Amino acid sequence: MQNKQAKYIELGELLLQQILRGHYPLSALLPTEKELCAQHGISRHTAREGLRYIERIGLVERRQGAGTRVIRTNLPEQINQFTQSVQELLEFGQQTRFSIDVCQLLITDKDEMSRLKFSHPREYIYLAGVRSEVHDKKPICYSSIQQFRYHTDLYAKDLDKKTALKQMMHLLSSSNIGRVEQEFTACLLTSDMAQKLNDQAHSAGMRVVRKYFSKQGELVLLAESIYPAHRYRYINVLTPASKKL
Amino acid sequence: MQNKQAKYIELGELLLQQILRGHYPLSALLPTEKELCAQHGISRHTAREGLRYIERIGLVERRQGAGTRVIRTNLPEQINQFTQSVQELLEFGQQTRFSIDVCQLLITDKDEMSRLKFSHPREYIYLAGVRSEVHDKKPICYSSIQQFRYHTDLYAKDLDKKTALKQMMHLLSSSNIGRVEQEFTACLLTSDMAQKLNDQAHSAGMRVVRKYFSKQGELVLLAESIYPAHRYRYINVLTPASKKL
DNA sequence: TAGTGGTCTAGACCACTAT
DNA sequence: TAGTGGTCTAGACCACTAG
């Protein structure tokens, strides 16, 4: 039994593919809402939702009276990033290698509790190590991960790296994650960190802290990664928050 | 004659304010769509658009069957950033001071043209200097700005700093800007740059490149700013791009 | 199983843009 | 002024979640 997609998503995906494949080049106008209604036998509301779908991605720009215009023909990195940021951790066992330095079962201290707005202490698995490419073993970043207890009984008492990783896969898979918050700051690589990352001491680094929340809104995982500056850039598109704000 | 707001924006703003003011605390459920319809005498479509308004801002999370839940009670920095990123340049003459080192009229070279995807060369005003706080004169960042010729006849031939700044205000004001693209990378501060920023040489910096596009989709301004690491952080919320992608 | 949000239709009028 | 997208109504059925 196939999961049937909503009509507006079908339309959105169609337009998306057409734009990516050059059917509508940069600055081209897409069909009007009325035309899309006629072409696909859908209501105007559905056509609008389809257009909103690609507008949200940032491929087109809509202007009252002027039509829907293509403003880029490739996917902004930003859009992939939700998937990517989740995928990144899932890839720890796949495209990238995660050699774990530290693997411990800990409890949040007072400082962390206030920082994370926890009302009660929570247990977590702490993992830290270097993530590197599989093929040439070049270091990508150093990651410290706090994996919070989710279902109380899932963690074995004897904690080893393999179980911890497996646990993380489980947490992040099956579309558990509802949203991700990220924070970027620049930093210097300490000698220690630089050595681990196979880079020069005192060179620039990007520090990325990501918080993964479940669909129920609970913090399930916190990852801090330090990248050598040349290994990381972040790109973003801002649009006016309609009318006000 | 007041510009009457759309009903869904009225609703969105109302809910927004209620959340900011603590009427709906963290994790609280908002009224259901049906209730909002009844309370405000609006159709369900309008109620949904109102809810979408605050969902887009990132204040609530909606789940089929479960309701609309508050996931944060303050405005994410991200949301202000479109306004902020435009405002930042407008503030050059106001809250912050921009002491201009360089002010020139230039033309894009081949390298820039390919980088910016221009088919023809374009003239621009080049401005560079330190932006600093007005009250304590502490440096905020070093900015280089390329301000592209927009209306051919607007620039006086004798270019001085005052006209250039005035021109920039004009470009960015009156809601000309339709979108902003930004890119973040970490870097080291050169001795020269560090001196200008009143910081230590070889300390970490954040490099932010922002491209400002007009509502017609034309690149009107490009700004590169270098911040001392401790002066800048970027925060972001990612949500799954509905269903697919 | 009751109630929520998600999708969809078929209309209507309005505000804006281009020419 | 013609045609576009923006807002809005009043319905309908479906998919999901929680108790």
Automatic annotation (TrEMBL), chains A, B:
Q: Which PANTHER family match?
A: MANNOSYL-D-GLYCERATE TRANSPORT/METABOLISM SYSTEM REPRESSOR MNGR-RELATED, MANNOSYL-D-GLYCERATE TRANSPORT_METABOLISM SYSTEM REPRESSOR MNGR-RELATED
Give the source lineage, highest ranks first.
Answer: Bacteria, Pseudomonadati, Pseudomonadota, Gammaproteobacteria, Alkalimonas
**SMART domains on file:** HTH_GNTR, UTRA
Name of the protein:
GntR family transcriptional regulator
Claim: DNA-binding is one of the keywords in the record = yes
Query: What region holds the HTH gntR-type domain?
Result: 5-73
Which InterPro entries does UniProt cross-reference here? Bact_HTH_transcr_reg, Chorismate_lyase_/UTRA_dom_sf, Tscrpt_reg_HTH_GntR, UTRA, WH-like_DNA-bd_sf, WH_DNA-bd_sf
Q: Which SUPFAM superfamilies match?
A: Chorismate lyase-like (SSF64288), Winged helix' DNA-binding domain (SSF46785)
Q: A Pfam family for this UniProt protein?
A: UTRA
State the PROSITE patterns in the record: HTH_GNTR
Which keywords fit this entry according to its UniProt record? DNA-binding, Transcription, Transcription regulation
